[in-house]
Amino acid sequence: MTDPQIPVFDASSEFHQNLGLLKVAETAMRKHGDVVMIRASDTRQMLLMAGTDSIRYWKNHQGQFQTELGDIASNAGTTRILIGDALERPENAAIWDASRSGLAEVNAQWDGWAHQSLIDATQALVRNLALNAEAPVDLRPICSLWAVRALCPALFGQALPDPEMVEGLMQIEQFYFAMSTQDAEATATPEALAEFQAARGFLDRAVRAGLAQNSADAPNVLASMNRCLPATLTEAERVDFLRPTLGRLLLEKLNIDGLGLLWTLSHLAQNPDLVAEMAQEVAGCADLYNAPDPETPLCYSVIQEAQRLYPELPFIYRITSKEMEVQGYRVEPRTTILFAPWLVHRDARYWEAPNRFDGQRFMTPPEDRSSYLPFGIGPRVRNRTQFLQHQLSVAVRAVVAEYRIELAPDCKRGNLRPILRSTLAPRGAVPVSFHYRTANTEAATLAL
User: Fold this and answer.
1) What are the structural domain ranges in the chain?
2) Which of the four pLDDT bands, split at 50, 70 and 90, describes residue 439?
3) Which of 106, 218, 273, 334 is most buried, judging by how many CB atoms fall within 10 Å of its CB?
């Protein structure tokens, strides 16, 4: 008896290439079910494993999916190429030991540093919205700037100007995108890629600027790690030894492009009654910036719902390390697997009205935890999820406490349809108006 054959969906045509992976995966699953081989070209194919059964299999057999490929948050190989391996070389064992001492101090201080950066970034966001109150502003640069300010000072201090940090992070994203989309010949020597040179150059500039501008006792990761390094090192050596720690933390903790905040605010701008309920909730919160997330459950539910519809990792690539059997099909080793939070999160088997934004949906946790994985799975992913969701919770509470939010009438509806690059980004500008709440306006008038 022969093994059942995995159904194949041919997506090698120009039509399917133009259609994009979001639609291709959706169509392939609808036609063939949760396990289907997507043939992207004569030389490239990937096994789509959709549905919660596939997610549970992945959770329970992670050793069979050891090789990572193609996503910005967890691609170990690409990350290692970008940040370098100076700390891991045998001849630098003493430097590694010194760096471990620095990491111990960082771990002890990190929550305080990160929280202060978040408060400063969110207060700046609220002030900047006041400068543009009433007139529509594009959410894309606003949210991207907030994401940089909410993290980078805790890592680098005030190393580079904010716009340069925003541009540099975009260059890192472009490097990951190049590594996941270009052919094997191009990625065999990644250091030759223009995207690598731009991304590595940005990281090195940020480290050098931080070394020049930070005092020895500055409250950030760079200063703490630098204090533990031998005084005899040259600047180039310091950059090589500091880059791995700073680069890893940057990629693990960054709210990429501020997209989590952007998608949340874009839906709130279309739900005035929901914003009013959230404002009433935060009015009873004694300290918007320090309250635990469960103290404002509606706000927390709203950001979780936005991440359901727009997961940071809509597709997660892995390569099988051994032969295995999945849902009755035999899967060969070195098969590229495509897990799809994008599909699971919008699947009517697990969610009522899955394509509708329901801000109250997560007031009750989902029955099947395998149906919700906006950042992937694993212990480190849980920590990342808590960190990023807390950042978003604080920002959203602060914004709805001050403003009513309205989508500009001339916003093109097509702009709000996500396009897949490394992440799910809007297709164009997202103009939104922020109006002072009546009570705030009256108070300001009386003050005048």
Assistant:
1) 50-447
2) low
3) 106
